[in-house]
Amino acid sequence: MKVTVKYFGLVAEAAEKSEEVMEFDGTLTASELKAKCLNGLSITDKESIQIAVNQNLDDKTTLKDGDEVALLPPFAGG
Amino acid sequence: MSRYDRQIKLKEVGPEGQEKLRNAKVLIVGVGGLGCPAAMYLVGAGVGTIGLMDHDRVDKSNLHRQILFQELDIGKPKAMVAKKRLEKQNSEVQFKVYEEPLTMENAKKIIQQYDVVLDGTDNFETKYLINDACILANKPWVFASIYKNEGQLSVFNYQNGPTYRCVFPKSTRENISCEATGVLGVLPGILGTLQAAEVLKIILGTGEVLSGKLKLINMMRGSEQIIKINKRPDEVEKIRENGIAPVYIDCDLKNAEHWYLDVREVFEQPKPKGKKVLNIPLSDLTLRYREIPNNQEVFVFCQSGKRSKNAIEILKNEFGFHNLKNVEGGIETIIDA
Questions:
Q1: ipTM of predicted complex
Q2: Residue A53's closest chain B neighbor by CA?
Q3: Cβ–Cβ contact B124 with A under 8 A
Q4: In chain B, how many domains are there?
Q5: Are A51 and A38 in contact (CB under 8 A)?
Q6: pLDDT < 50 regions, chain B
Q7: Which residues of B233-267 are buried (b: 16+ CB within 10 A; e: fewer)?
Q8: Amino acid B174: pLDDT
Q9: Same domain, B43 and B101
Q10: Cβ within 8 Å, pair B32-A10
Q11: Structural class in CATH, domain A2-72
């Protein structure tokens, strides 16, 4: 199964990319994929990062082939 | 001819719309990179009453993006300078200046007096505070935030719609401001202007308000995306029942045996836990220096190590403290991640 993952803000920075295609066997929920993507990245507060699947905020969905996942950290600047 | 002729010509505005604008009251919390352009367009459009809230003073490093301020304003209070400038732009607008921070105590009372709140803040604590107070006062608020070249925008608590807590239920320690990361002045310019547009649509009751949607903008890539957000009724209900939820983000000190002096403002995060941590903001030191132990080593810290260095200079030169050590590199170096 293939899904596209989009990174924003400090997640994109830590991952050193803004997008990647992840391939995996079996089933994963959106939050399981998030854990996989963030694994090894130096981000202090991973819990605060929200997940959108196909442009809908949602972390419980089981992913399907071709889904687009976005990892959204909160921003504070102004 | 009315000064608003060119907008009254639009069917979305018309004379009735202009009257709605004249009767409207908008509170701008934070007159900085977002608040400055937003205020200028709202004042231009003839919003009748505008509250300008900021407890900060104009700094030289603000001038590249906070376009209401000029070189001669450096050191002056932002809210007052903004008012004086905006009055010249439109003498028909009433201004209310608040040179104090939004707090748990004053938030609901102040917000109740307005129709819409525009968030020009640069920290999570105030964003949650605005959110919670708007839920309690039943007012919509227009949110925007920036991280380097990216921005987020949404309208929260609009006609019972989703709130900030429906997107980000909990605050985070990663409180990174534009001061820390850098920003090109145009990005808050774009976002502040979009916020003003949302405020105008809300007041006029026209167009599609960006409620239930989070807009993501990447200025460098020139890309935009919209994420749909749903209401989390439990998050909203918690605030309705229990009132404003304070955002104190705890953290643990690597060595809790020492005495510590935190010279940051009270709202700055995270807050280290421990009985030997004093929080006296730099500006209060001369009033409260007696609270600081002078017979044992005290580690002085702030966010980056700069303010704490100043604090030590003051305490040493003016009050004879010789037991203070600066935490170079700021709070992140003394806490457990």
A1: 0.95
A2: B227
A3: yes
A4: 2
A5: no
A6: none
A7: eebbebbeeeebbebebebebeeeebbbbbbbbeb
A8: 62
A9: yes
A10: no
A11: alpha beta
B58 and B203 together in one domain: yes
Alpha-carbon distance B173 to B176, whole Å? 9
Angle between helices B35-45 and B186-204 (to 10 degrees): 40
A31 touches chain B (CB under 8 A): no
Residue B273 dihedral angles phi and psi, to the nearest 5°: -85, 155
pLDDT at B168 (0 to 100): 94
**Sheet of B277-279, strands arranged across:** B277-279, B259-262, B298-301, B324-326
- CA A8 to chain B, closest CA, distance in angstroms equals 8
User: Which residues constitute the domain of residue B67?
Assistant: 5-242
What are the φ/ψ torsions at residue A4 (nearest 5 degrees)?
-95, 130
List, for chain A, all residue ranges whose pLDDT scores fall below the cut of 70. Answer: none
CB contact under 8 A, A56 and B228: yes
Distances (CA, A) of B94 to A26, B48, B97, B141, B299: 62, 6, 10, 20, 47
Interchain contact A42–B (C-beta under 8 A): no
